[in-house]
Design brief:
By secondary structure, this protein is α+β, with helices and mostly antiparallel strands. 31% of the residues lie in helices and 41% in strands. It has two domains: 2-152, Nuclear Transport Factor 2, Chain: A (Roll), CATH 3.10.450; 164-282, Roll (Nuclear Transport Factor 2, Chain: A), CATH 3.10.450.50.
Length: 294
């Protein structure tokens, strides 16, 4: 129905003797603005209706989705470009900032705002879209943009060469003494192993319960010094040395400790590294075997 109304409107304008090139340009701009409105609202039928049956669609060179450019025809555009992007991104929006119009050509200057599913990365690259129209329908599309940002968002996160930042983030979370800050850094099947009686805790729920009990008893501060670090795909291993200061909340007694450990990280589907296993031993006995050093 939209297409019929749009076509009727254009025919009416073309039939009117007072129509000027300026009027045509304004109409073309409105068609393009409506395309972005349809995309934003999820009205992909409306989006498709604005395309010419033999539309030629070009993604920017070096864009990850440019491998089959040009995409020709409505079905190709909708299934090979837009549906693929919809499947790959948890959110994807276009933010028009300004328009430039020259007869049948409309340029949109703006930005993307998107989050890639498997890496969890976000992007806001600058873009320029060039639309060419004929009789109120899009006959061609050319994208230009920050393709480096587009490629980066799909690239899994890496770690620094020695893993120091991973360990630093972990220690910062532990030193918050807040289990709700610590647990997002853990995998669901995380394992803690430590010296002492019953020194093994398996699973995020068990670690969370144990950590809550530990921080109910102690105010803790740790310093962990990274040693050797190795990566293998989505896994990383780091050896560390640590010192600890544990202050018992009830008595105010302070115990200094030191030891060594190994932490294993796993990179998840969202691209984030989390602690999958942490095992340590105390060179100086901790004040309580039940609430040992985390």
């Amino acid at each position: 129905m939209k297409r019929l109304l749009l076509t009727a409107s254009l025919l009416s304008l073309l039939a009117a003797p007072t129509v000027s090139a300026h009027d045509d340009s304004s109409s073309n701009e409105e068609v393009v603005k409506q395309i972005y409105a349809d995309f934003a609202s999820g009205d992909m039928d409306g989006f498709a209706e604005a395309l010419s049956p033999d539309v030629v669609w070009n993604e920017a060179e070096n864009n990850p989705y440019a491998t089959e450019s040009p995409y020709v025809g409505i079905e190709s555009v909708m299934t090979e470009v837009l549906s693929t992007i919809g499947a790959d991104f948890s959110s994807f929006s276009v933010k028009p900032e300004s328009y430039l119009v020259d007869g049948n050509t409309v340029a949109m200057l703006g930005r993307y705002q998107a989050t890639y599913k498997t890496t969890g990365k976000t992007m806001t690259p600058q873009i320029v879209h060039i639309w060419t129209l004929e009789d109120g329908h899009i006959t061609s599309f050319q994208q230009y943009g920050d393709t480096a940002a587009m490629r980066d968002v799909i690239t899994p996160a890496t770690v620094d060469a020695d893993g120091a930042q991973l360990l630093s983030d972990y220690v910062t979370a532990v030193n918050s003494n807040d289990i709700d800050v610590i647990m997002p850094l853990m995998t669901d099947d995380v394992v803690f192993q430590y010296s002492g009686h019953n020194g093994e805790i398996i699973g995020a729920s068990a670690v969370s319960e144990w950590g809550s009990g530990f921080f109910d008893v102690f105010e803790a501060k740790f310093v962990k010094t990274p040693q050797e670090f190795h990566t293998a795909g989505d896994w990383a291993m780091q050896r560390y040395l640590f010192t600890s200061t544990l202050k018992e909340k009830a008595s105010g007694n302070v115990t200094q400790g030191e030891g060594k450990g190994v932490v294993v990280y796993e990179r998840g589907p969202d691209g984030k590294w989390r602690v999958a296993w942490d095992g340590w031993s105390d060179d100086v006995p901790a004040p309580s075997a039940e609430h040992n050093t985390p």
